[in-house]
Amino acid sequence: MNVHVKDDNFLKENNARHMWHPMAHPADSLANPPAIITKGEGVHITDIDGHRVVDAVGGLWNVNLGFSCEPVKQAITRQLDVLPYYSTFRGTTNDCAIELSYELANFFEPDGLVRAFYTSGGGDSVETALRLSRQYHKVRGEPGRVKFISLKKGYHGTHMGGASVNGNANFRTQYEPLLPGCHHIPAPYTYRNPFNESDPAKLAQLCAAALEDEIAFQGASTIAAFIMEPILGAGGVIPPHESFMPMVREICDRNGILLIADEVITAFGRTGSWSGSRHWGVKPDMACTAKAITNGYFPFGAVMMAQGVVDVFENDKTGNANVGHGYTYSGHPVGAAAAIACLAETKRLNVADNAAARGKELYEGCLKLMEKYELIGDVRGGHGLMTAMELVSDRKTKMPIDKALPMRLQEATYQNGTMVRVSGPNVILSPALILTQADVETILSSLDAGFSAVSGN
Ligand SMILES: Cc1ncc(COP(=O)(O)O)c(C=O)c1O
Questions:
Q1: 63, 240, 309, 345 — which has fewest CB within 10 A?
Q2: Distance from the CA of 372 to the center of ligand 1, in angstroms?
Q3: Mutation test of ligand 1: which of 57, 171, 291, 329 has the most ligand atoms closer than 8 Å to its C-beta?
Q4: Which residue, of 319, 348, 377, is where some domain finishes?
């Protein structure tokens, strides 16, 4: 039963007519109205016509425990009854925010992250980390450290600061001018890179050398932070070689630059490890989290900070460490209650191990599809449940695919039992971490049928 009050015809008639969709052309949404999802259960979603499929998108990399996670639902409804909102701005707090901060400090202890600053989502977390990293240097007496360096292909949300460190022109060009002082280096993306280097270890070294070069060019004393996703997600799932993030850590240390890990996707088990930084054996200075922190059921996020950062703020005597930053919903008690329940369930189910096992099957299945379908130019993944296939019109020249084809593939795959997401030439798979082996098979057979439909074999 649907909980909305209007009937299905009303919904179809009004679909996309009075709202704009993120990451879509408004005219295209009118011409090709989006799928109306009305129900979610486990790893399945059902649309308005009753078509039920496996959701290989996992909501949007966030519904890690699926759509039927009772403990999180109950925590939300209970908290709504007791205290639906109270602020954490100076002078007040709430019980859930306190308890969650304790749990998060425990969870991220192996990453060396000891304090939380709450936000309302991933973009807010990135903005928070960027702002606090500048303040960190000002408080320390190096006010000239204001610039940011990041990876091309990286995705850090669409706030003005996040878009400025974002590495994809789609989120930048129409919104320029962006923040000054943001500079980018090549991503360790073996399939396409300016060095024409396909060996992951060698490419990691070249990208690290490019970082050193950029730091020398800008002047280390002008740079506040380097921000990166431990495994690039929205840019098309780009896992760097295992040596890359440790090299970045060492370069940042040597140059007094903070390392911000954007773990909005990678925290809480998606990579097969409990955090993306831990996956590579790196301790960042700050980590941005959001998405799966509440299983996607409540907009919430947290920036976690390392002891070194914390000490500078907490030992300040000048008053400059007063945090002039925050959101009405920072530490929202309903979000915090959701996150407490979600963390407990995430650990109880040990989803990181399942993500690693199912992720391997999904990645290997996609490699098999690549043997069968010429239009798959590259398959990336192998680290938990983050997998992408990059489509090309010619494997030899890596010519980009006709723009309409990925959408046709998405539709054909959907008709055959699985929701996948296409972004540019990439088919991105980021299902819930509670996925079963049978669900992996469904995803792969739907994709097989989808590819067969669009490639005519
Ligand atoms: C790595 C990363 N950072 C930041 C964001 C932005 O998060 P939000 O959409 O919640 O603002 C995303 C969203 O996909 C992300 O993947």
A1: 345
A2: 33
A3: 291
A4: 348
Note whether residue 223 is domain-resident: yes
Read off the amino acid at residue 410: Q
CATH number of the domain enclosing 267? 3.40.640.10
- Cα of 288 to ligand 1 centre, how many Å? 9
Q: What is the pLDDT along the chain (457 residues), one digit of tens a residue?
A: 556 668 999 999 999 999 999 999 999 999 999 999 999 999 999 999 999 999 999 999 999 999 999 999 999 999 999 999 999 999 999 999 999 999 999 999 999 999 999 999 999 999 999 999 999 999 999 999 999 999 999 999 999 999 999 999 999 999 999 999 999 999 999 999 999 999 999 999 999 999 999 999 999 999 999 999 999 999 999 999 999 999 999 999 999 999 999 999 999 999 999 999 999 999 999 999 999 999 999 999 999 999 999 999 999 999 999 999 999 999 999 999 999 999 999 999 999 999 999 999 999 999 999 999 999 999 999 999 999 999 999 999 999 999 999 999 999 999 999 999 999 999 999 999 999 999 999 999 999 999 999 997 6
SS3 at position 298? coil
Q: Which residue has the tokens 């971490």?
A: 433
Answer whether 420's CB lies under 8 Å from 35's CB.
no
CA atoms of 211 and 163, how far apart (whole Å): 20
> By alpha-carbon position, which residue is closest to atom 11 of ligand 1?
123
Length of the chain: 457
Question: Of the residues 326, 348, 370, which one is the last residue of a structural domain?
Answer: 348
Counting from 1 in the atom list of ligand 1, the atom nearest the Cα of 122 is 7
- Give how many domains the chain has, as a whole number: 2
Rounded to an integer, what distance in angstroms lies between the CA atom of residue 412 and that of residue 49? Answer: 16
Quote the domain boundaries for residue 178. 71-348
Pocket of ligand 1, beta carbon within 6 A: 121-123, 126, 155-157, 229, 233-234, 262, 264-265, 290
